[in-house]
């Protein structure tokens, strides 16, 4: 009887760990804008890791099932670098462990054997390529693990590939000359968002429950919003970015994950947060016993400021405002106090350094690769708008970079002061729902690109500049069944507060049971 139960658990895991089998079996005629509503929520990383740890499924079976889900959806174009063999060798090795050895290994590695992906941007894993979505880096094999990757491995994660990113993460869509477009599982005509759209697409499609992402202007929160997922951008300095660069894009960019469940994000933060050698920016410790435990505690009554307008003056789409209203109504029902209030901000001064900061990081990466290859990058090896940014970075002055960085500090000061009066800020995640593919590509005139980029990141990018933690929560879907996020911001170091509220919202307005129809993504 026990063997039969274990076999049933194994079949459930292999056939439907994330409900993909049910979703892809629907007739193609239903592929327009349909939701597959599961009887129960798809399995998250914590549940999946528990199954592996108990021996209900081996790490090799888990990996092979995950890879099968990748290969079943070739049009999705989410996992673009496939480190399958390295992952399989590791999975075979640990699957062969006896019970006692498995118990010892899982005691220190809570996600032992769990399949996982890295975003193809800014992190390295020994013996594998990180291309940054750029042809100039397509054969760039890493000789060391990033600090974060070492922490992922220590947590037990088995990394089997890299997910698509636009070139250097420089736009809010996941389309590149090198890999093409990653399709949004909810509507294949629309963007996944960017730049962590490959990870978001893979999770939304049920390939795996959680994956690595980065955020330099909204690149965790925007794809989470467009793909119906949870995305938390940590405070500056919370998660390591080294050892090669401790302060990504002059402080704008941070690492973390996108997930389906709030608790997976909390656990991954527990397993990866903390300083590395050389760290000087250290956010306050707000969850001394860990974020996973902190999110389970009841939240006190919060005072939340609502921002319905963008500082750039563009109109906000009705569905994005509806997402704010839905979040506000849910928060009020929990007893929180909401009021509309926005601080006066010197927008030009604050945002002046964003372009130079991102471009300086681009220039540094290109020059490092040029030194490796012993030749200069060619124009045809880069996206046109990134090539222009590279040329501008070469002409930038030290004074421009200094003033830009001073603008970041000004933003931090003013938002800190505002958040001394409020516990959180609530805004739309984006000014418009997921745009059509092509609208944010890096091979178009700058003016048309800039207008669409502002619609995507007008709310999110401010908090990369200021360094505050922020999250997108999936509470609203349009009439065409496209997800729309609600965006919350906390004081510096306040990830615990965000996670506790997210857990409340997840319980009040659950989203994990919602799955897109994946018929259109099959071969």
- Range of strand content: 5-15%
Tertiary shape = globular
Number of strands: 15
Q: From the alpha carbons, calculate the radius of gyration and give it in angstroms.
A: 22 Å
Low-confidence blocks of residues: 15-33
Q: By helix and strand content, what is the structural category?
A: alpha+beta
Order of strands across the biggest sheet? Answer: 7-9-8-13-14-12-10-11
Helix content: 40-55%
The helix count comes to 19
Distance between the termini: 39 Å
Write a brief caption for the model.
This protein has 19 helices and 15 strands.
What does this structure look like?
It is a single chain. Helices cover 40% and strands 13% of the residues. The chain is α+β, with helices and mostly antiparallel strands. It has an eight-stranded mixed beta sheet with strand order 7-9-8-13-14-12-10-11, sandwiched between helices. Strands 2-4-3 form a three-stranded mixed beta sheet. The protein has a two-stranded antiparallel ribbon with strand order 1-15. A hairpin with a 5-residue loop joins strand 13 and strand 14 (483-489). Helix 14 (354-373) crosses helix 15 (384-395). The longest helix is centred in the last third of the chain and has 21 residues, at 398-418. Mean pLDDT is 93; it is low at 15-33.
